[in-house]
Amino acid sequence: MADHAHREITQRELRNESGAIMRNVERGESFVITRNGTPIGKLIPLRRRTFVPRAEVLAAFATAPVLDAEAFRADIDSSVEQDPFSREW
Fold first, then answer.
1. What is d(CA 55, CA 64) in angstroms, rounded to the nearest whole number?
2. How far is CA 55 from the centre of its chain?
3. How far apart are alpha carbons 9 and 37 in whole angstroms?
4. Sheet holding 38-43, edge to edge
5. What is the pLDDT of residues 1-28, one digit of tens each?
6. How many CB atoms lie within 10 A of CB 1?
7. I want to staple 43 with a disulfide (CB 3.0 to 4.6 A). Which of 27, 31, 34, 82 is the partner?
């Protein structure tokens, strides 16, 4: 894979070296499992990462729409009751 964060391993490696691979996953490493040279799945750690590289954050938001802060605030203000204590229950 082009993504250096994921090491490619074969299905056979996963079967034969599962203990070592699982220890690496616990340490944060990710794997792409292949069968006959074709990627078929990913093995990734479930715990949250505490640090995300800047380039990864920028890539994630690169296709996000531009937010007009004033228009957003106006939309929120128009849809939320301004005095929550004025409502009759």
1. 15
2. 14
3. 9
4. 6-10, 30-35, 38-43
5. 344 478 999 999 999 999 999 999 988 8
6. 13
7. 31
Token pair, residue 19, equals 């203990």
pLDDT of 38: 95
Beta carbons of 43 and 26 less than 8 angstroms apart: no
Which among 55, 56, 22, 57 has a CA at the least distance from the CA of 31? 22
What is d(CA 72, CA 60) in angstroms, rounded to the nearest whole number?
21
Owner of token pair 């070296």: 17
CATH number, span 6-79:
3.40.1620.10
pTM comes to: 0.48
Query: How far, in Å, CA of 47 to CA of 33, rounded?
Result: 20
Phi, then psi, of 74 in degrees rounded to 5? -65, -40
